[in-house]
Amino acid sequence: MALRTLNCVQMMASNTGHVPDGQAPTVAEAALAIVPTPDQLTMIAKTTTTLSPELEQRCAQMIQGLQRDINKLSDPATDRSAKRRTLDGWRRSVVDPLTRERSPPLTLAVTLALAPCLARLLGDKVEKCRELSGQILTSIISDLSDVKSLLPSLVPALVDRLARDDQPEPSEEIRLENLRLLVMLADKSGPMASLITADVCSVLDHTLVDSYPEVRKESCKAVVLLAVHAPAALRLHAEKLLKRLVPSLSHRHSAVRIVALQAVGTAMQVDASIFKDIWPSVRKLALDSSPAVRQQLYSVALNWQTQLVDRYSYAACMLSVLISGLADEVLELRVKCQAAIDDVSRVYETEWADRVKDKLDYEPKRTLIGFRTLVHENLLKLTDSLVEDLGDWTVEVRRWAALTLAQLLPFAEGHISGYLDKLLPALAKVVHEPFAPLVFQTASAIGQYVAPDLLLHLTVPHLRTPSYLALLVHALDKSPITASHINAILKEMQDLAENDEAAAIADPNLKSLYLILLARSGAFAAQVDMDLLLSIGLAIADDAVLNAMNTASVPLFARVPDSLVNLTKRDLAPRSPQLYLVKRFLKLAPPAVVFSASALVPVLERLSTAATTDDSGIEALTEVLDVILPKADQILADVASTLWLNVIVRNLRWRSGRKAVQLRARASALAHACLVNVSVPDLPWSNDAASAPPAQGAFAHPPPGPLTATLTALSTAMDDDPVATRRTVVMIVQRVAESWGSQWDAEHVKVVYPDLVKRLDDAQDPVRVLACAGLAAVYEYVHAVTQLDPVHHQELVKSVAIHVDDPNPDVMNAALVTLRAMLRVQPDAVKAHIDSTAHLFRNASALRDLLAVSS
């Protein structure tokens, strides 16, 4: 029918002389150039329609009445106002009656008569004429069901207006109206649309990238119509159209993106040769902010996976979209994706029944077997793509990849094991991203589905990397680890803590990992290395870790003494991992355990021995004493007694060097704590050998006894540079005199009092006051002071009395108290000195009052 009409049009064009003789006109030339006569118009109507005599007569009358208007509109000299009035008149006299009457044969006959003229006006210079002609054609043709006979006259004109590179239609609204008219013709042509597919595609090549969004939307609809009515003809142009559709997938209007995606989805089923080129642009829509766009994407992915000819070649692409949709923020879309996955699974189980038969037979309760099998077959492509996306430069893509992985693992299950070597490094790089919870969810799923041996083999060697440490913590949450796995992790943690203690303490993931191991160790108490578990716990402990260790089913702290003894057998150099662990033990373990004889004594004796040989030993002991001193008041009496000579007294002795000075300060503080805050050590003072004659055959100078050694060390320490040391040592001398004065002899007094006298002239008044108190204690509690030669008493009285004139009232009062104690023991020496020198003192009255009170 269309070909017969075309022949008629070409014949009329030849008869009217609008083309050269002997040259056949083109369709466009014929449609745009002819001005048919009434007889020719009637012939066209008869050749294309079957009219009743009544309608044929009426049609002839209408065409005869319109001939003048047709001639006027065809005349180039007609002014624009006349053309516009004529077209307005046609809307009232032709379009409206035909619309009301709804007689398709009559409407088609009239349209065939008007079509050449209206087609010519589609390219008129006057915009209003172009607009009215398009509106008239659209109004008339919308009531027709068969438009094949109109294609030769209208399609060339529409193509000329929409597909021209030079002087295209400038009006957006007219371009849209013309495109809608062309789409309507294609839609109403049905299967015959294949005749104009090439023309329509030439138009779409321009309109798919039109700046007007509505034109783009209408163009996308045209692609869908052609795919439905003329898929074979469209296949020749699908590749070019798909490339033209790509920019619309990222259009700023969501409505454009939706129809463009729908067009891509339909056109791809016609020709999928450039699927891989188009897919990146399609996949980006999974990140779209519009739920409607994402919904369309899920629908397209489902259609492709169930209907596309090469669907299993590109299954990894569609699977990634559908799986990511399971975590969509919109509940309705999540449900839609779950239903889509069910459909894909059923299709696969039907098409590949032989592959899933055994699973369906032996695992009847297992769901989505077809989909799981499809995932397993495409797991390599899926992981490669997602690993690449995890390294993308945009955070949105990285987040989408992490989200997809988290949803993929329950379908991949244990099959993911073969891809961990590239998956774990990619996950480690995004551990600290804002979407870290998704990464940790993936790590937890890996721990659930992957064998612990493989998991630890790939992660434990990298525990020094914080990102791998975080992954392992979350992977172990659901991993079925055993004692051997716990021990392997503990050994690596030990190396980490020993080689980089600052990082070990600071990293919260290391503490979280330890808490997991501690909780799992209860079931394997006999196989787990508890000493190692205890050491690492104290090395990295904070309040949470300590609380967990105290409440653990395994009594860890009961192993503290043995662990400390084992540590003392190793090198305890300053800044060594072993010394660090010793300090953590002493600081964090319960005092009742740490300060027991079996725990504390071996450590301090070992360090004290090392301190006598080099400065590093002194430094190590100093660091340990710094840890002990804040809680030294909890040291038990028997422990203090054991430590007194081998640790305290030994390190109170004078040695050169700044480190030795610091050590004496700590040793004096420890001695003071033992004497003041703890029960007094029961030292064998009575067996002191300071004044005992040497035994037959013994050395001339036997080793000093405990009391002599103590007083000798104290006397040397009283001259130390630090004020705190001098003050503490003088206080210790006073306490020793008060508590064990009855066991002193004259030699002990001679060891102590010269240094006490020196402290009377100390640069610090508090030390001078304490020195006076120490001398007073010697005279009050040490009975052996009476055994001294009178000359000693005279020197002592003289040294104390001079401070009665001290400007500091505290020192003056302390000196008077000391003189009063001396007066009770040696009244003659005191009175003789005061009587002979009182006139030289400013406070002579205080001295006389002292004598008066004593008498």
UniProtKB/TrEMBL annotation:
<dbReference type="Pfam" id="PF25757">
    <property type="entry name" value="TPR_DNAAF5"/>
</dbReference>
<dbReference type="InterPro" id="IPR016024">
    <property type="entry name" value="ARM-type_fold"/>
</dbReference>
<dbReference type="InterPro" id="IPR056497">
    <property type="entry name" value="HEAT_DAAF5"/>
</dbReference>
<dbReference type="GO" id="GO:0003341">
    <property type="term" value="P:cilium movement"/>
</dbReference>
<dbReference type="GO" id="GO:0005737">
    <property type="term" value="C:cytoplasm"/>
</dbReference>
<feature type="domain" description="Dynein axonemal assembly factor 5 TPR repeats">
    <location>
        <begin position="79"/>
        <end position="359"/>
    </location>
</feature>
<dbReference type="InterPro" id="IPR057978">
    <property type="entry name" value="TPR_DAAF5"/>
</dbReference>
<dbReference type="GO" id="GO:0036159">
    <property type="term" value="P:inner dynein arm assembly"/>
</dbReference>
<dbReference type="GO" id="GO:0045505">
    <property type="term" value="F:dynein intermediate chain binding"/>
</dbReference>
<dbReference type="InterPro" id="IPR052623">
    <property type="entry name" value="DAAF5"/>
</dbReference>
<dbReference type="InterPro" id="IPR011989">
    <property type="entry name" value="ARM-like"/>
</dbReference>
<dbReference type="Pfam" id="PF24573">
    <property type="entry name" value="HEAT_DAAF5"/>
</dbReference>
<protein>
    <recommendedName>
        <fullName>TOG domain-containing protein</fullName>
    </recommendedName>
</protein>
<dbReference type="GO" id="GO:0036158">
    <property type="term" value="P:outer dynein arm assembly"/>
</dbReference>
<feature type="domain" description="Dynein axonemal assembly factor 5 HEAT-repeat">
    <location>
        <begin position="365"/>
        <end position="476"/>
    </location>
</feature>
